[in-house]
């Protein structure tokens, strides 16, 4: 339990550092090869999804599902950019698990079969 708390604190600290020091909005999209101009907001908004991105058996919090659903409606490529970002990786998120979150949230308009890096959205 303490380990999860420490991981979350580290993730938030890395996220804050990233948001304060990175002024170039093209940083995140470069991680997914063509994600558009996403900026830093997607990674920051998906903090509630961290536990579900680490463990395929974890229940996805409703707030995470809401954030993912909203991001898929407005900027679906930015979800991929956030999943593949160095911030997510440093926080311990597993991209292969993270791409399953839209399905685990029962989001009907998810980009089924689309590639997110080397991962395919189920």
Automatic annotation (TrEMBL):
Keywords: Membrane, Transmembrane, Transmembrane helix. It comes from the Eukaryota. SUPFAM superfamilies: Bifunctional inhibitor/lipid-transfer protein/seed storage 2S albumin (SSF47699). InterPro entries: Bifun_inhib/LTP/seed_sf, Bifunc_inhib/LTP/seed_store, DIR1-like. Gene3D superfamilies: Plant lipid-transfer and hydrophobic proteins. The chain crosses the membrane at residues 6-22. GO terms for biological process: systemic acquired resistance. The keyword Transmembrane helix applies. The keyword Secreted does not apply. Residues 23-116 form the Bifunctional inhibitor/plant lipid transfer protein/seed storage helical domain. GO terms for molecular function: fatty acid binding. It holds the Pfam family LTP_2. This is Bifunctional inhibitor/plant lipid transfer protein/seed storage helical domain-containing protein. It comes from Solanum bulbocastanum (Wild potato).
């Amino acid at each position: 339990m303490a380990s999860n708390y420490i991981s979350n604190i580290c993730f938030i600290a890395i996220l804050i550092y990233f948001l304060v020091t990175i002024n170039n909005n093209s940083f995140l999209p470069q991680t997914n090869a063509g994600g558009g101009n996403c900026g830093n907001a997607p990674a920051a908004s998906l903090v509630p999804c961290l536990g579900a991105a680490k463990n395929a058996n974890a229940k996805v919090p409703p707030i995470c599902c809401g954030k993912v659903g909203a991001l898929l409606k407005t900027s679906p490529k930015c979800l991929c950019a956030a999943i593949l970002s160095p911030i997510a990786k440093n926080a311990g998120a597993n991209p292969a698990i993270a791409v399953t979150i839209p399905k685990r949230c029962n989001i009907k308009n998810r980009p089924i079969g689309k590639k997110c890096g080397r991962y395919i959205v189920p």
